[in-house]
């Protein structure tokens, strides 16, 4: 069995002081994908990755922003930072690790803001990332590897993926254009939303709750942290769980880890 977790840590140094270290010590994950690490690698305390092989993509344009990483129990055969688009190469939004039979990536899409330059940036990211997903799938298939892209996609695909969907129809993360793009990831690029393969019905489970108001207590959240895989790997998924804390005080990020188990590598 292969166990993979993904979580937006909302600042790794801060998360380490609030419970991330305890979670990492207890997890049975073979691979952990992190988003919004923020801290430059040379400023991270050693204990946040002790005992793990790590590869980081930090933002060198906006120091202390964004940042993604992959932690693994075994050393990858190869790694890659960025997906070949100059605008995003140094933005700390994409990293991948190649293992036998499998490529795992950690992605952090821009959050966007409708009517601003931030939304324009998000749309440029989506426009260039989709063809890369197609390219990655084809490249991995040449030597028999499947692909798993984990991370904070910052898009709720369907109405069942956020609590207050009616109030958010014109907001970033749930615009018609963003939702249509997610459909293209699944239909045109041929990937699968692993949670929806195992649990097609909603609502939720949600993976992010605003710190404002009573969003967490009322479970008024969004499902934006995803395992997105090639079809064969999706059929090998046994379980997928959102590790939602029992209480508000137990949170060490405004997201929750999403952990899946896969029957991998295949016996055939």
Describe this structure in words.
It comes from Actinokineospora globicatena. This is Exodeoxyribonuclease III. GO terms for molecular function: double-stranded DNA 3'-5' DNA exonuclease activity; metal ion binding. The chain has 268 residues and is an alpha+beta fold. The chain is built from seven helices and twelve strands. It has a six-stranded mixed sheet. α4 runs parallel beside α5. The radius of gyration is 17 Å and the shape is globular.
Summary, kept brief:
It holds the Pfam family Exo_endo_phos. This protein is an alpha+beta fold.
Features:
268 residues, alpha+beta, Deoxyribonuclease I, Chain A, six-stranded mixed β-sheet, 7 helices, 12 strands
Strand-residue fraction?
A: 15-25%
Structural class: alpha+beta
Report how far the terminal alpha carbons are from each other: 14 Å
> What does the average pLDDT come to?
96
Order of helices and strands: EHHEEEEHEEHEHEHEHEE
Largest sheet: 6 strands, mixed
Can you tell me the CATH topology?
Deoxyribonuclease I, Chain A
Give the helix tally. 7
Number of strands: 12
Any idea what the CATH superfamily is called? Endonuclease/exonuclease/phosphatase
Percent helix among the residues? 10-25%
Can you lay out the helices and strands and say which pair or pack?
Blueprint: E1 2-8, H1 12-18, H2 20-26, E2 31-35, E3 53-57, E4 68-72, E5 78-81, H3 86-89, E6 94-99, E7 102-108, H4 117-141, E8 146-152, H5 176-187, E9 192-193, H6 194-198, E10 225-229, H7 231-235, E11 237-242, E12 258-262
Parallel strand pairs: 1-2, 7-8
Antiparallel strand pairs: 1-12, 2-4, 3-4, 5-6, 6-7, 8-10, 9-10, 11-12
């Amino acid at each position: 069995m292969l166990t993979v977790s993904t979580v937006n840590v909302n600042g790794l140094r801060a998360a380490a002081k609030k419970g991330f270290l305890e979670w990492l010590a207890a997890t049975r994950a073979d691979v952990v994908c992190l988003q919004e690490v923020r801290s430059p690698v040379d400023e991270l305390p050693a204990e946040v990755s002790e005992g793990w092989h790590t590869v980081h993509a930090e933002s060198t344009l906006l120091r202390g922003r964004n940042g993604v990483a992959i932690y693994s129990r075994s050393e990858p055969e190869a790694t890659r930072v960025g997906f070949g688009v100059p605008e995003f190469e140094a933005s700390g939004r994409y990293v991948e690790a190649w293992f036998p039979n499998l490529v795992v990536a950690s992605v952090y899409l821009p959050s966007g803001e409708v009517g601003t330059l931030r939304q324009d940036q998000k749309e440029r990211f989506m426009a260039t990332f989709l063809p890369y997903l197609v390219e990655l799938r084809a490249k991995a298939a040449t030597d028999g590897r499947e692909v798993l892209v984990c991370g904070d996609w910052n898009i709720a695909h369907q109405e069942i993926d956020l609590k207050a969907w009616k109030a958010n129809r014109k907001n970033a993360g749930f615009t018609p254009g963003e939702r249509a793009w997610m459909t293209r990831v699944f239909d045109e690029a041929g990937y699968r939303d692993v949670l929806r393969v195992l649990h097609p019905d909603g609502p939720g489970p949600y993976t992010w709750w605003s710190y404002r108001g009573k969003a967490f207590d009322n479970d008024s959240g969004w499902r934006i942290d995803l395992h997105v895989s090639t079809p064969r790997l999706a059929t090998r998924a046994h379980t997928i769980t959102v590790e939602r804390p029992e209480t508000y005080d137990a949170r060490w990020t405004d997201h929750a880890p999403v952990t899946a188990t896969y029957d991998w590598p295949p016996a055939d």
